Amino acid sequence: MSNSVIKVENVGKLYHLGQVGTGTIANDVNRWWHRVRGLEDPYLKIGESNDRTKKGISEVVWALKDISFEVNQGEVLGIIGKNGAGKSTLLKILSRVTNPSVGQIKVKGRIASLLEVGTGFHPELTGRENIFLNGAILGMTKQEIRSKFDEIVDFSGVERYIDTPVKRYSSGMYVRLAFAVAAHLEPEILIIDEVLAVGDAEFQKKCLGKMKDVSGQGRTVLFVSHNMGMVNSLCNKGIVLTHGQISFEGSAAESVSFYLNNFSGVKNHTVYFEADYNLPCQVMCVSLTNNKNELKNEFDVFEEITLSVEYEIREDINGVSLAFVLEKDGDIIFISFDTDYDSEKLNKRVPGKYRSKVKLPSPLKAGMYNFANIGFGSVNTTSININQNALSFEIKELSFDPTFKSYASNRVGIVPTCLNWQEIKLNS
To answer: What three-state secondary structure class fits 395?
Structure first.
């Protein structure tokens, strides 16, 4: 017997741009007549895919089209995609906030949704009152809610304000309480959009732990996030949405890798940036070369990789570091600052054009790497000029080194470095 709790079959969501009806009374009546006879809407056959980057010729777009997948009990499904890919629309359909234009969804069990800050909260009611309101909406009895009340308040960390109207809560407090309610009132299915990004790092860690507990209890979680590391650590299955359609479905690790390979960063050996003369300092160009000084974006696992950064200092400035963050599959590998071994740069930087080079650790494991951030920041962590996902490169196992590779390239760990041990014989 199948343990599927969510089954999505050929679901699509159509939107009319700039109008609600079909445009004429005759067409609206025709649509109604088809609906009462159980026939397909005759005006759903037109429309374009939801590519927001291109100007279309139709006033009808498919936010979602031909979406089909299943989620089994206890699975944590990560839904990945660029902004506008249809992730939130899919979650709203699954949460029954809106209906699909075509297709059907079969769901077993109660659903709790956290789609935006304060979902299901009434701003005039207190935190205490909203806990009972949310519980009632989820189909819980008053006794069930009361038995979980102290646990919810403790998890949320807003006990001091529990009798204050939630309209006076910050966005972080809203999310804390809303997540605590959704996670503790024991729905069979928990649906969470990007809202956890509003919370601080400590609360995000608590949420991840709670979601793992929820899935371990046999309940199902659907999770949308742009944080690939979070998706990787939490989810065991993933789908990637592109222009409202599923472009990949597989394990969470495979889905993250597919997304990063195809939609994240610029896989190029050199990237130039447009000058912004309002900035006191700015990165103008970044590039990657091997040990032969060849510009490349694909490297062998044993090949030396050098990052070159050309930048411009436009005025006397102090307390500033040039830095980058290197990621693999959404996880931070390391962060580097050009002031780590040259603290004098923090005292003063003189106007002029400069080029800095740094060698990356070797070997790096095979896979896609992404400079998530590269640019200038001040010592008080303020960003001055940060370029996100500007440069990506790929490590491949192209050669074989029998004295080294068998020990290093497949070793567990982020950077599989081999260290040179020195042996000293002791007298017995």
So the answer is: strand
DSSP string, 296-359: -SEEETTS--EEEEEEEE-S-B-SEEEEEEEEETTEEEEEEETTSS-THHHH-B-SEEEEEEEE
Helix, strand, or coil (residue 73): coil
The CA distance from 233 to 230, in Å, is: 5
Quote the CA–CA distance of 278 and 299 in Å, as a whole number. 36
pLDDT digits (tens, 9 = 90+) for 155-214: 888 889 999 998 888 877 888 888 888 778 777 888 888 766 666 666 777 777 777 777
Place of tokens 């026939």: 39
406: Cα within 13 Å, side-chain hemisphere: 2
Report the distance separating Cα 394 and Cα 406, nearest Å: 20
Rg, C-alpha atoms of the chain: 26
For 236, the token pair is 């065991």
User: 132 and 181 in contact (C-beta within 8 Å)?
Assistant: no
State the pLDDT at residue 246. 92
Three-state secondary structure string covering 179-238:
HHHHHHCCCCEEEECHHHHHCCHHHHHHHHHHHHHHHHCCCEEEEECCCHHHHHHHCCEE
Query: How far apart, in whole angstroms, are the C-alpha atoms of residue 392 and residue 104?
Result: 39
Residue 422 main-chain phi, psi, to 5 deg: -105, 125
Specify the 3-state DSSP secondary structure of 379.
coil
| pLDDT tens-place string over residues 114-126 | 776 566 788 899 9
Q: Per-residue pLDDT tens for 392-409?
A: 888 876 555 545 544 455
Report the half-sphere exposure of 254 (CA within 13 A, side-chain side). Answer: 10
